[in-house]
């Protein structure tokens, strides 16, 4: 038995299970629906719901008796120094990037086996394609995840390949080849794995150690009028990602 398996906190486990269930559902749930998804009785989770409400982590819509996550966890996450520094440094750069390219852009960081969106700026035009702030996306389904992993410490990369199953069962050898190619060119340009007709252009945000702390991505939407060519968007994105990297102590001219 490992050190972490020696100690149990059932109440804490229940509370975290409820939070994860609401996050994965992406919508509000009744007490009964939460209990059913967790395969627990309503009475088992009742006290946990009360405590989570009191701590401001969840809220209850009293007209429908449905529970939903508040922004409290998101706010707590932004108190982590690196995330706060990252979003502060990135915000003005992303605003300029969206205005220059007439494309939306978002900032993603790794959280376990997912990518979490911690920054989002819409393009100034009438037609907007954006990813919801705080969205949690399956790791291998995002260019952000692939770019971050490609520019991570080799040991971290290998551990992720081994521990995060690819939804399409892509062999580890192929993943290594693809990640090496991304690392070599310094970015990824790939048709979206989620939305048809969109091409993701993604570049890493590098920290002082030269490894990726985040990824800046443009979900490129081709416009019939007033659009910047894809190649120019790529150059603007690389310049923006490098600007943010330098503010975080990362290497200049890291992206080519």
Could you walk me through the main structural features you see in this protein, from its secondary elements to its overall organization?
This protein is of the alpha+beta class and 256 residues long. It is 45% helix and 19% strand. Helix 2 crosses helix 3. 30% of the residues are buried.
Quick take:
This protein is an alpha+beta fold. 45% of the residues lie in helices and 19% in strands.
Rg, rounded, reads 20 Å
Q: Report the span from N to C terminus.
A: 48 Å
**In DSSP terms, counting alpha (H) and pi (I) runs of 4 or more, how many helices?**
9
- How many distinct beta strands? 9
The ordered H/E elements are HEHHEEHHEEEHHHEEEH
What gross morphology would you assign? globular
**Hey, roughly how much beta strand do the residues contain?**
15-25%
Biggest sheet, strands in spatial order? Answer: 6-5-4-9-8-7
Mean pLDDT: 86
What structural class results from the helix and strand content? alpha+beta
The biggest sheet amounts to: 6 strands, antiparallel
Poorly predicted segments: none
Q: What is the helix content?
A: 40-55%
Helix and strand topology:
Blueprint: H1 10-25, E1 29-30, H2 31-38, H3 42-54, E2 58-61, E3 66-69, H4 72-77, H5 81-101, E4 105-111, E5 114-121, E6 136-138, H6 143-150, H7 154-163, H8 172-185, E7 188-191, E8 199-206, E9 212-220, H9 230-247
Antiparallel strand pairs: 1-3, 2-3, 4-5, 4-9, 5-6, 7-8, 8-9
Helix pairs in contact: 1-3, 2-3, 5-9, 6-8
């Amino acid at each position: 038995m490992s050190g972490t398996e020696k100690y149990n906190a059932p109440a804490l486990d229940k509370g975290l299970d409820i939070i994860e269930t609401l996050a994965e559902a992406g919508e509000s749930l009744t007490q009964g629906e939460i209990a059913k998804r967790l395969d627990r009785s309503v009475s088992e989770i009742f006290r946990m719901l009360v405590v989570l409400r009191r701590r401001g982590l969840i809220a209850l819509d009293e007209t429908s008796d449905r529970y939903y996550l508040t922004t409290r966890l998101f706010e707590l996450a932004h108190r982590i120094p690196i995330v706060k520094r990252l979003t502060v440094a990135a915000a003005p750069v992303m605003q300029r990037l969206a205005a220059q390219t007439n494309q939306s852009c978002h900032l993603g960081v790794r959280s376990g086996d997912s990518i979490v969106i911690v920054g989002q700026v819409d393009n100034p035009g009438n037609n907007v394609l954006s990813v919801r702030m705080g969205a949690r996306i399956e790791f291998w389904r995002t260019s952000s995840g692939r770019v971050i992993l490609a520019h991570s410490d080799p040991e971290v990369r290998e551990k992720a390949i081994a521990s995060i199953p690819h939804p399409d069962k892509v062999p580890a050898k192929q993943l290594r080849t693809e990640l090496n190619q991304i690392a070599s060119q310094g970015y990824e340009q790939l048709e979206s794995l989620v939305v048809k007709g969109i091409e993701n252009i993604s570049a890493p945000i590098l920290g002082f150690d030269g490894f990726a702390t985040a990824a800046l991505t443009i979900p490129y939407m081709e416009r019939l009028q007033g659009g910047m060519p894809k190649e120019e968007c790529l150059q603007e994105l690389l310049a923006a990602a490098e600007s943010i990297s330098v503010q975080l102590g990362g290497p200049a001219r890291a992206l080519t």
